[in-house]
Amino acid sequence: MHEYDSILEFFSTLSKLKGFRFGLECITSMCDALNNPQKAFSAVHIAGTNGKGSCAYKIAKALDCESYTVGLFTSPHISSIRERIQINGKMISKEEFSRIFYIVHQAALEYELEATYFEYCTCIAYLFFKERNVDFAVLETGLGGRLDATNVCYPIVTVITSISLDHTNILGNTREQIALEKAGIIKRNVPCVIGPHVPSDVIEKVAKENNATLFKVFCEDRDFDRENSEIARKSLEVLSQKILLSKESIEKGISEVPPLRFEVIHKPSCFAIVCDVGHNPDGVKRLFEKVKQKFGSKKITTLCGMSKEKDVRSCLQYIVDTSNTICFIQANSERAIAAQKLLEIANEIDSNTEKAAFSEIEKGFFWAIDHTDQDSVLCIFGSFFIMSDIQKLLAIDQERDKNIVQEQFINNS
User: Fold this and answer.
1) Bond from prior residue into 76 cis (ω within 30 degrees of 0)
2) 372-393 pLDDT, tens per residue?
3) Model confidence at 404, in pLDDT bands (50, 70, 90)?
4) Are strands 42-47 and 136-140 parallel, antiparallel or unpaired?
């Protein structure tokens, strides 16, 4: 077995045994054992319910346009774990990932630290960015903020994109409680940018306690890309007060959109296909608003798969209210909710809309294709975990790991 593939097997085992950890004790010890690589670069640290990955991507692109060396750390991935760790748009190679993994793994063994999947990834990213002497690293939190493994970084600006109800079993049952967890990334004397859908009173209190200047973004447009662009623009304008960063680089960077964020695919002699990784009620609602805005009165066929920890019923309400035909699929992940279960809940909401469910993504994909006519749009969305198979079925060229391993959602806090 190839060395890299063996490491993926290790991550698969680690994910099933360890899940994730909500806390900083282990990651702090790991970084100490590795001589604190996170101190070697200035970070842009981004938290939020929705939009944080897109904002991170836009900010990194703008800095790249200004010819800085820029690290980008995001999660989850679609087809390769290496997507999470990039410099100037290029993924870490298999060889570099493997080499740095063993450095991190040796430190974990030597100091008897039981690091999780996400903590390993974070340490690999930090070491890689240190070795490559990046000017900046744009870091997306994995979950929350206050106790997220990325929160040992040294930011020059922090960003909170949006707050809505997600991961309520961990972060809290109200927007205010969730906002307080996200506000944990705010650092003393470091400016913070917040999006238009963030409870500002909660953030203002934390910012004041930390003497952190707060910048609020106002955007009434419901289009999530425009909102993310405005948040990224404000963040970059704040950065430009400290570093050389032209308006041209800012505008070029924020115009970029990461894959699978309302990605419209046109195949010859075929209806339009929209792919998106919206996976919670706010993301799903905005997705369908944009589908309606772009495609008007066209009928909508929906193909989706979701994770267990999401507010599934609320998402399905939007799907049923908007779709003419619905097909549920199931990712090859322990976090995936069974397609049949999604069908049962959807039928409880509305039994009239034509629906189907398949445990195999390929069968569901072709059922949806067959049930979409030329005057319709096919909307494929949901968990990141379904998207590698979808890209393959759409003949989208992408580097793919033999074993696509994601974190399992076991709380070890």
Assistant:
1) yes
2) 999 999 999 988 889 999 999 9
3) confident
4) parallel
The sign of the dihedral angle between the CA atoms of 173, 175, 176, 182 is positive
CA 47 and chain centroid, separation:
10
Q: Which one-letter amino acid corresponds to residue 397?
A: D
pLDDT digits (tens, 9 = 90+) for 18-41: 666 779 999 999 999 999 999 999
* pLDDT tens per residue across span 165-185: 655 455 656 888 889 999 999
What is the C-alpha R_g of the chain? Answer: 21
What's the distance, CA 374 to chain centroid?
Answer: 32
| HEC assignment per residue over 4-48 | HHHHHHHHHHHHHHHCECCCCHHHHHHHHHCCCHHHHCEEEEEEC
Are the C-beta atoms of residues 73 and 141 closer than 8 Å to each other? no
Task: Give the model's pLDDT for residue 412.
Answer: 52
Determine contact, residues 31/38, Cβ cutoff 8 Å: yes
Strands 70-73 and 85-87: antiparallel
Distance CA 343, CA 330 (A): 11
Which residue shows structure tokens 């994909």?
365
Distance of CA 99 to the CA centre of its chain: 25
Predicted confidence (pLDDT) per residue in 280-339, tens digit:
888 899 999 999 999 999 999 999 999 876 688 889 999 999 999 999 999 877 778 999
Distance (Å, whole) CA 97 – CA 242: 32
Which amino acid, one-letter code, is at 67? S
What is the reported pTM?
0.94
